[in-house]
Amino acid sequence: MATTRLIVIGGDAAGMSAASNVRRKVPLREIVVFERSPHTSYSACGMPYFIAGLVETSEQLVARTPETFREKFNIDARVRQEVVELDLAGQRVRVKSLESGSESWEPYDQLLIATGAEAILPQLQGSDADGIFGLSTLASGIRVHRFLKQQLPRRAVVVGGGYIGLEMAETLVRLGLQVSLVDRGEQVMGTLDPDMGVLVSEALREIGVTLYLRESLTGYETANGRVTGVVTDQRTLPAELVIVGLGTRPNSELAAAAGITLGEKDSIRVNSRMQTSSDGVWAAGDCAESFHLVSRKPFHVALGTVANKQGRVAGINLSGGYATFPGVVGTAVSKICKYEVARTGLTERKIRDLGLLYDTAVIKSKTRAGYYPGAGWISVKLLSEQGSGRLLGGQIVGLEGAAKRIDVLATALTAGMTVQQLVDLDLSYAPPFSPVWDPVQTAARQLV
Amino acid sequence: MATTRLIVIGGDAAGMSAASNVRRKVPLREIVVFERSPHTSYSACGMPYFIAGLVETSEQLVARTPETFREKFNIDARVRQEVVELDLAGQRVRVKSLESGSESWEPYDQLLIATGAEAILPQLQGSDADGIFGLSTLASGIRVHRFLKQQLPRRAVVVGGGYIGLEMAETLVRLGLQVSLVDRGEQVMGTLDPDMGVLVSEALREIGVTLYLRESLTGYETANGRVTGVVTDQRTLPAELVIVGLGTRPNSELAAAAGITLGEKDSIRVNSRMQTSSDGVWAAGDCAESFHLVSRKPFHVALGTVANKQGRVAGINLSGGYATFPGVVGTAVSKICKYEVARTGLTERKIRDLGLLYDTAVIKSKTRAGYYPGAGWISVKLLSEQGSGRLLGGQIVGLEGAAKRIDVLATALTAGMTVQQLVDLDLSYAPPFSPVWDPVQTAARQLV
Fold it and tell me: Nearest CA to CA, how far is A130 from chain B (Å)?
């Protein structure tokens, strides 16, 4: 295997994690990475903090540059090179240089597709105007940063109240803009049940964001090629800057065009070793499918944690080793100013869709012993299956120290624990960290 | 059962948790609690923060007063009443009023022993002098608080570098005293392996505590009935205040005198329903035995979390319900100024004592994404069984946000997870909360 050529398409988390794992195991193998952006291995999740000025330079978000990969790891990372076609029968890919426009065919023995996901930007009236941004690549983050510095917008509209939408709303408030947020849901954060989402909506209002809920984006008003307003099904909101946070879609067109099987939300279907339907072709990261350990169904999620794990598994397998990626439980966390939000497992809607019956508990507690300075509120919601008592999901909203508790629930979900087993857990306690019953256990006690 | 009489000995966490559970299930039953101190249901763990002035009054540490129990819960909580003898055959206890000195026999149908634990204070030369304190009851915390206010000591010695010792060392530094700490171990915090304990020793030195390690207390110097110094096997340390933090011992003498079987460290042996060897007699809390789910052996631990859980289980069973306490994994956490320390499972020494072979990994990482403001260091040690890869223990030392991660390890230990399963966990990630690989997973990756 040392002399075979591995081509990796995509130089971010999954691709470079795989490439690095292969390099570690097979020191002499040829590894070529094609990345269409100028950057490798960056933290997309860090962009709101760079834009907010909490992180000074975009370079700080880059874990390893193409030069580092070439010089220190002997990984031939080629940026501004876009793979535009897969020839699976011929075991080669057609690569276009985004600098020169020239194209060439590059042969491979093994191929890893790690093309990521891109922000969903609906094509609507005015959507090509300046000032409208999605956020998925570091380059897009740098564009927003530059736009803010150069154009000094005063009013911003964020479309979509998911993680990126919320973090960008905070960022823009920090920068002194008037910020409105449009979401078609009953509350922001549609990955939470509405009774928990309302706490996040309230937090957003408290930091000064004007919310327009149950409203949908229908288009943009523009003048001289620039956006001047966001049009919803109910009103027009003036804005010089629009952030579209309507989620991402997997970059799977290349794979689909080559006949590789797609799965959930058009992500590339893989087995647990990250093999696609085509022999010798692997996929990992935001473009690849995952598996939900609670619903026991195929699932797609675009998150750095999953991309890193899948990339690692692909890299071990591509080196002749054996590793599997068992799946996810749907864990996510976010911070909006002082408020922390986290979720794992299934929401009420998902549980109903599966035809399961369930019980719920929502409790309010404290992040520390009530008498300890800085104790803040925390609300925990748990969902458990009727009869078995098996934990099905958890949601947390609260102040400092609230959110990372979700990891206990993620671990319990993975282990298939019941709420009774949650009550019995020997979790840590000292007054600066928790009440004597950790809030997740206080919630579990209501369900036993 | 509504008309039978329940007597509870001890009015803190376990006793009152049991009594409250019984009251909830059986509204009319007679419940009498005898407590020798003036207080019920207080947070012993909060005493260092009360003494430090972070918590203003000792009343804030009391969750429910005897009056509240009597008036709101119809629980006859009698304080300053000490049970001095159990007559199991006669189903009665002899109670002494600590106010009047009078004694009486009180009959019961069911008896719960929840007598707690008390600080170990070795009887040595000078140990009866003023200024030497153990800390286990709220009354003892109030005495230390008063001594500090009235006597204005300048130099303090803390004997023992466990949780209470460390928290009191911090407290006394905060109050402006010169603080020395004597511990006979290689490092403080003997519940950690020395390679992690050294990080805590360094943290203590950094906050200004002078450490004397590998030294043992041999006695005290006194003058006019007051302590003036601590004598070790190597030196004499001048001090007007001495805090002895050498651990606690279960208050099991009453039970032992009545012929009830004792177990680990002379705690009262119980089954998982909290029944003692004597029919109709139950025990819970710091005086009762527990079970270690990792070593699979009887275990004793005096912690509020365990006391509350055992009290709850006893209360359910005493109400005619059915509940079991499966055991603990040995989780504990503490904060010393800005440093956080946590542990769960088995140390290297304990694993060797069990005759198991193991692997270890120690890693240093960050509490947040490296580029995010406030990212601090965190060190994680994991221990796993050779062959099976089963997690056996974990230890964490670090800055803000480090310690509560121990709960993931406690949950994984309870579920019997392997380090590979830890690597695969879908833990939460966002830059304000974690690097993309949570530090516990970075450690686990070294072991697969």
Answer: 29
Catalytic residues of A: 45
Q: What is the pLDDT of residue A134?
A: 95
Same domain, A197 and A283: no
Instruction: Encode pLDDT of B368-411 as tens digits.
Output: 999 999 999 999 999 999 999 999 999 999 999 999 999 999 99
Q: Which one of A192, A328, A407 would you mutate to disrupt binding with B, by most B Cβ within 10 Å of its Cβ?
A: A407
What 3-state class would DSSP assign to B351?
Answer: helix
Q: Domain range holding B360?
A: 339-445
Q: How close A306 comes to chain B (CA, Å)?
A: 8
Report the residue from B60, B309, B407 with minimal CB separation from A428: B407
User: Is the domain of B357 the same as that of B438?
Assistant: yes
B43–A306: do the CB atoms touch at under 8 Å? no
> In sequence order, what DSSP letters do the residues of B57-94 get, joined into one string?
-GGGGBSS-HHHHHHHH--EEEESEEEEEEETTTTEEE
Q: Is residue B53 part of a domain?
A: no
Percent of chain B scored above 70 by pLDDT? 99
Segments of chain A with pLDDT less than 70: 1-3
Look at residue B300 and tell me whether its pLDDT is greater than 70. Answer: yes
Do B239 and B291 lie in one domain? The reply is: no
With beta carbons under 8 A apart, name residues in chain B contacting A308. Answer: 436-437
Instruction: Tell me what pLDDT residue B1 has.
Output: 56
pLDDT of res. B102: 98
Residues of chain A found within 8 Å of residue B369, distances taken between Cβ atoms? 43, 45-46
DSSP A46: G
The sign of the CA dihedral B158, B164, B169, B175 is negative
Per the CB < 8 Å rule, is A432 touching B335?
yes
CB within 8 Å: A411 and B406: no
Give the pLDDT band (50/70/90) at residue B289: very high
Per-residue pLDDT, A2: 57
Residue from the list A49, A304, A417 with its beta carbon closest to the beta carbon of B436: A304
Residue B288 lies inside a defined structural domain of this protein: yes
In this structure, are residues B69 and B77 in contact, taking their beta carbons and an 8 Å threshold?
A: yes
pLDDT of A85: 98
Q: Which pLDDT score is estimated for A1?
A: 56
The pTM score is: 0.97
Distance from A56 to chain B by nearest Cα, in Å? 9
Tokens for B413?
């230990």
- In chain B, the residue whose alpha carbon lies closest to the alpha carbon of A407 is B427
Which positions of B are catalytic? Answer: 45
Cβ of A407 within 8 Å of Cβ of B401? The answer is no
Res A337: pLDDT: 87
What local confidence, expressed as pLDDT, does residue A187 receive? 97
Tell me, yes or no, whether B201 and B233 share the same domain: yes
Contact A306 B426 (CB under 8 A): yes
Residues of chain A with Cβ-Cβ distance to B326 below 8 Å are: 424
Provide the pLDDT for residue B136: 87
Band (B2; pLDDT cuts 50, 70, 90): low
Grade residue B337 by pLDDT with cuts at 50, 70 and 90: confident
- Looking at the structure, do residues A288 and A359 belong to the same domain, yes or no? no
User: B102-119 in b/e burial notation, b at 16+ Cβ within 10 A?
Assistant: eeeeeebebbbbbbbbbb
Q: Could you tell me if B273 and B377 lie in one domain?
A: no
Contacts of B150 (CB under 8 A, 6+ apart): none
Is A424's CB within 8 Å of B333's CB?
no
DSSP helix, strand, coil percent of chain B (3-state; round to 5): 30, 30, 40
Q: Is residue B54 part of a domain?
A: no
A127 and A216 share a domain?
Answer: yes
Which token pair is A250? 């997997």
DSSP B420: H
- Is B56 within a domain? no
What pLDDT score was predicted for residue A419?
98
Same domain, B146 and B169: yes
Query: Could you tell me the CATH number of the domain that includes residue A147?
Result: 3.50.50.60
Whether residue A49 contacts residue B374, with contact meaning beta carbons closer than 8 Å, is answered with no
Number of compact structural domains in chain B: 3
